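Re-run with default settings, no changes from the original entry. Doing this only to confirm the output is reproducible before filing.
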Amino acid sequence: MQLDFFRRLWEPPKTPPATPAPPPPAPAAVEPEPPPRKVSALPLQERAQGLLIALGHAALAERLTVRWNTRMRSTAGMAYPGQARVTLNPRLIAFGDAEIDRTLLHEVAHLLAHERAGRRRIAPHGPEWRRACLDLGLHEETRCHTLPLPRRQVARPHRYRCPACGKQLDRVRPLRKKAACLACCRAHNHGRFDERFSLVKVRAK
């Protein structure tokens, strides 16, 4: 017993077993983002048609189509008077119904302005368009939106110049048909095409 006693004295103290570390807390559950709200283009088309009919343009209302275009990026909407068609950027949905409606009326005003002008050439955001905006209930509308949509730089290598006033026009693609300076045609020929003001190409990269 004495030997056991002395042996225990000289033995190094036993290290108590390590307490196991608590398991790491489970990561918080990450809920998936809700899918973007879907908005049908049909009610938008019907709203625009109703406004056009009320203004006495039932023929335009019958031809009108409104569609979402998923390929649009920086542009809020586009109007195609020759086809009576309006396309809208689906990113507008994130900005609410009021912004969708404003953009819809902005583009429909282009169609209405061209319908009233007939074959006469008009400026894209000139007095005819401003009047159409007011008739559709769109007051103090600006020519361009201020929404934070992604923008990209587009090269415009084709430059044209008016031989009369010297104004320049830069384009992404070359003109396929004869075109004249709108400002000069409006000032000197009631907005009709005038050969004297045909645009001359001065640059192509």
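The radius of gyration is 34 Å. Helices lie at 2-10, 41-54, 58-63, 97-117, 127-135, 182-189.
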